[in-house]
């Protein structure tokens, strides 16, 4: 682990009691959902991690509990190091606070995670679907969402297909 | 009858100003079928006369579920899907996926030198080809038609080189985990040499048409200014970031392939407008030529060396062995049907694509299929800046701004 990163990780351990994992020289820090905004704020303001490179999620259904991990990839221009934050979130329709206030570009990434995984970001300014159509049912990148295809809907089979479509559960 | 979940006006209210409700401003739909949005990008514009008050991009028309599909395939078969993301940067997509898989299984130090050199040459040629498409369409948007024709003429030469090495012009899948599909043919050296000797004159020609052209400058100078702080805060990368005065290029900051041994510069401009991004990309093409020239000489020195890792676990056996070795046949069969297993763990690998930081988040679960593949695509990240850049400009300038961000919708929607 690079020296600077070691310093950052040790400080995070002390202040937030996080767990740290290293794989192929890449450092992942496990953060609890309620801490994420504070951790991001600390990393940006005190340790110059000013670039949120990526934000995504992973689904471990059915093997693991908690089911989802939200993954943040941070980078520091000044020190040329990157750090990954992992946030395990509980439940079927989990939620965690948004980091939009710290990194404005999280806006679209969080919308994508909401669209694809159904993970809710509390306090997000515009949490709508981004890639799928607005009336889509389900969250495609969940592991229990089948990998299928959509039958083309023509005039002659319009109603047949309409009847078979999945509806919102409530 | 058709039941749809209606989206109510209230849900979209926060996107526009109060003036829109009062009828003072107009909401105009632009795209998704519009020649200057460079694909299927839809914009909802709030206009005060001809001035853009607000701009809301609507994307997803080209979403094909590549990530979901890749999770259902093994690591080798998934490789063909990555070309389809950013169809102007196919070699670069293959490269970043190959690097990620190699890092995940731990063979990143076993890739032979010759493979690295060929990868570098092809990726840099691809950068030139992609910039040519950008330059052509960007100039076309600004009514400089002849540049478009010249650019596509030169791009064809690069695609012919790709066809020479891989048999395909665009969807090459030539760079694969573990090395390359095969060695380059004999006439590869001459073909590339011919191109790099011919091309510098052409860049001068494009510049003669545009750089000092008063019409072009009126449309680009001072338009869509991105301030340095905003570029960092909003996570811009690539020429958009460098056009705003930040000298950051992954090829220099975290070198991969053979970039740390090559001599090249990172062009930077301070202004942050459309014209600055234009100048950065033009200079980048020159630097790419410089890289290709050096790598081509290097290629000569590696004549006869292998282009795949010697670790047979991750590459298929050579065709010559299949005729007389039973083990090779078994291995060949197992390799193509079952694939190889990757350990539990996650890696994030990023390369400098023509548009910016192209990253792959790849997570293995101990089996032959990935648990999660995520592409951090530069177009998606940079497109997010559009509302910020467009505010206060004319609709006609919006066209110039979209062109200057250089988005590829296949890359945005994945």
Write the layout of secondary structure elements.
The complex is a heterodimer of chains A (170) and B (414).
Chain A: H1 3-16, E1 19-23, E2 26-30, H2 36-47, E3 51-59, E4 68-76, E5 81-89, E6 95-97, H3 106-117, E7 120-122, H4 158-164
Parallel strand pairs in A: 2-5, 6-7
Antiparallel strand pairs in A: 1-2, 3-4, 4-5
Chain B: H1 9-12, H2 18-22, E1 26-30, E2 42-48, E3 51-58, H3 66-71, H4 79-82, H5 90-105, H6 113-141, H7 145-166, E4 175-176, E5 179-180, H8 188-210, H9 214-220, H10 228-233, H11 239-242, H12 250-253, H13 274-301, H14 319-322, H15 326-337, E6 345-353, E7 356-364, E8 370-376, H16 378-383, H17 386-390, H18 395-405, H19 409-413
Antiparallel strand pairs in B: 1-2, 2-3, 4-5, 6-7, 7-8
Helix pairs in contact in B: 5-6, 6-7, 6-13, 6-18, 7-8, 8-13, 13-18
Describe the structure concisely for a colleague.
The complex is a heterodimer of chains A (170) and B (414). With 170 residues, chain A is of the alpha/beta class.
Name of the top-level CATH class of chain A: Alpha Beta
Radius of gyration of chain A: 19 Å
Which percent range fits the helix content of chain A?
Answer: 25-40%
Give the strand order, joined by hyphens, for the main sheet of chain B. 1-2-3
- The CATH architecture designation of chain A is 2-Layer Sandwich
Biggest sheet of chain B: strands, sense, closure? 3 strands, antiparallel
Give the biggest beta sheet of chain A: 5 strands, mixed
Question: Which two chains touch over the largest interface?
Answer: A-B, 40 and 44 residues
What's the shape of chain B?
Answer: globular
Order of helices and strands of chain B: HHEEEHHHHHEEHHHHHHHHEEEHHHH
CATH homologous superfamily of chain B - what is it?
A: Cytochrome-c3 Hydrogenase, chain B
> Separation of termini of chain A?
49 Å
- Reading side by side through the largest sheet of chain A, how are the strands ordered? 1-2-5-4-3
Q: What is the CATH T-level topology of chain A?
A: Beta Polymerase, domain 2
Structural class of chain B: mainly alpha
CATH topology of chain B: Cytochrome-c3 Hydrogenase, chain B
Strand content of chain A: 25-35%
Question: Topology as H/E string of chain A?
Answer: HEEHEEEEHEH
N- to C-terminal distance of chain B: 32 Å
Question: What multimeric state do the chains show?
Answer: heterodimer
């Amino acid at each position: 682990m690079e020296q600077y990163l070691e310093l950052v990780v040790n400080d995070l351990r002390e202040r937030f009691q996080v767990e740290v994992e290293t794989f192929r020289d890449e450092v992942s820090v496990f953060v609890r959902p309620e801490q994420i905004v504070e951790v991001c704020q600390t990393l940006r303001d005190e340790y110059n991690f000013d670039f949120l490179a990526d934000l995504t999620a992973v689904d471990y259904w059915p093997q693991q509990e908690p089911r989802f991990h939200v993954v943040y990839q941070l980078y520091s221009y000044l020190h040329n190091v990157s750090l990954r934050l992992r946030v395990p979130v509980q439940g079927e329709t989990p939620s965690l606070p948004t980091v939009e206030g710290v990194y404005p570009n999280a806006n679209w990434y969080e919308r994508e995670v909401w669209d694809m995984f159904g993970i809710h970001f509390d306090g997000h300014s515009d949490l709508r679907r981004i890639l799928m159509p607005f009336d889509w049912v389900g969250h495609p990148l969940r592991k229990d969402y089948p990998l299928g295809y959509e039958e083309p809907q023509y005039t002659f089979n319009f109603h047949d297909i309409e009847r078979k479509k999945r509806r919102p559960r409530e | 009858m058709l039941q749809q979940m209606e989206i109510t006006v209230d849900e979209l209210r926060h996107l526009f100003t109060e003036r829109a409700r009062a009828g003072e401003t107009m909401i105009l739909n632009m795209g998704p079928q519009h020649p200057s949005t460079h694909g299927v990008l839809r914009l909802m514009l709030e206009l005060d006369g001809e001035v853009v008050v607000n701009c809301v991009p609507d994307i997803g028309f080209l979403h094909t579920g590549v990530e979901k599909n890749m999770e259902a395939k093994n690591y080798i078969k998934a490789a063909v899907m990555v070309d389809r993301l950013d169809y102007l940067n196919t070699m670069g997509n293959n490269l970043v996926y190959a690097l990620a898989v190699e890092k995940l299984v731990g063979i990143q130090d076993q890739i032979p030198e010759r493979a690295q050199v060929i990868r570098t040459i092809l990726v840099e040629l691809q950068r030139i080809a992609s910039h040519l498409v950008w330059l052509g369409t960007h100039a076309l948007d600004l009514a400089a038609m002849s540049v478009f024709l010249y650019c596509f003429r030169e791009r064809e030469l690069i695609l012919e080189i790709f066809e020479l090495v891989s048999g395909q012009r665009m969807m090459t899948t030539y760079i694969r985990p573990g090395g390359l599909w095969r060695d380059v043919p004999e006439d590869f050296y001459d073909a590339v040499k011919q191109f790099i000797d011919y091309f510098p004159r052409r860049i001068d020609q494009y510049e003669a048409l545009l750089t000092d052209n008063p019409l072009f400058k009126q449309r680009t100078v001072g338009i869509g200014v991105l301030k340095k702080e905003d570029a960092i805060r909003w996570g811009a990368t690539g020429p958009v970031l460098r056009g705003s005065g930040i000298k950051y290029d992954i090829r220099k900051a975290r070198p991969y392939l053979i970039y740390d041994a090559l001599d090249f510069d990172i062009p930077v401009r301070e202004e942050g407008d459309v014209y600055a991004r234009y100048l950065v990309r033009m200079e980048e093409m020159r630097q790419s030529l410089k890289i290709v020239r050096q790598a081509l000489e290097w290629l000569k020195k590696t004549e006869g060396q292998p282009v795949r890792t010697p670790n047979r676990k991750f590459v298929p056996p050579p065709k010559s062995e299949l005729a007389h070795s039973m083990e090779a046949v078994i291995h060949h069969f197992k390799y193509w049907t079952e694939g190889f297993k990757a350990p539990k763990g996650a890696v994030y690998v990023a390369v400098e694509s023509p548009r910016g930081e192209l990253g792959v988040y790849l997570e293995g679960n101990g089996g032959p299929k990935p648990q999660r593949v995520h592409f951090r695509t530069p177009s998606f990240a940079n497109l997010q800046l559009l509302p910020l850049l467009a505010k206060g400009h004319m609709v006609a300038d919006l066209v110039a701004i979209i062109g200057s961000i250089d988005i590829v919708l296949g890359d945005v929607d994945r």
